């Protein structure tokens, strides 16, 4: 019984970590990364579609992204979506591909990005702690309903705390790694 609660909680916490990784991949560093624009929503014939479903995105150089749409008619929509995004990028196209030069970040912008990373990591920590709170509630409910003993309940809560601590530490490491990436000139 408690094992089910623990495995479910751990699975939900891991998916929270994965969401954090995806979030941080979209935060711009000084280098060109396909993760910056891959999931950008494009208005494709009235439907919001992620860019990676409309085109291939490559980073042939450290400061350049190249988007090759499969349907050449979508180039205008792709360019417009990139301009409207909060990435501060200026795309250009030659009718076949969209080129996006990635300018180096200013010191001020780097500090803003680091703050954003810290904020996202804190949100993830909160999400993990909320999952822990729900799992503790479930374990206590099992104890109240006499489905598990008091000792089993305590052991399960200690295990849960260990899982929580480990995954919060992992989230902090991911954040620190991204901060380092941003601050590297």
Structure overview:
The chain has helices spanning 2-25, 75-84, 107-144, 150-183, and strands spanning 41-44, 47-50, 55-61, 64-69, 92-93, 98-101. The protein has a four-stranded antiparallel β-sheet with strand order 3-4-6-5, covered by helices on one side. Strands 1-2 form a two-stranded antiparallel ribbon. Helix 1 packs parallel to helix 4 (150-183). The chain is elongated and about 70 Å long. The protein folds into two domains: 2-25 and 106-183, Topoisomerase I, Chain A, domain 4; 34-101, Gyrase A, domain 2 (2-Layer Sandwich), CATH 3.30.1360.40. The longest helix is centred in the last third of the chain and has 38 residues, at 107-144. The chain is an alpha+beta fold and 185 residues long. The mean pLDDT is 88. 57% of the residues lie in helices and 15% in strands.
Which SSEs are present, and which pair or pack?
Elements: H1 2-25, E1 41-44, E2 47-50, E3 55-61, E4 64-69, H2 75-84, E5 92-93, E6 98-101, H3 107-144, H4 150-183
Antiparallel strand pairs: 1-2, 3-4, 4-6, 5-6
Helix pairs in contact: 1-3, 1-4, 3-4
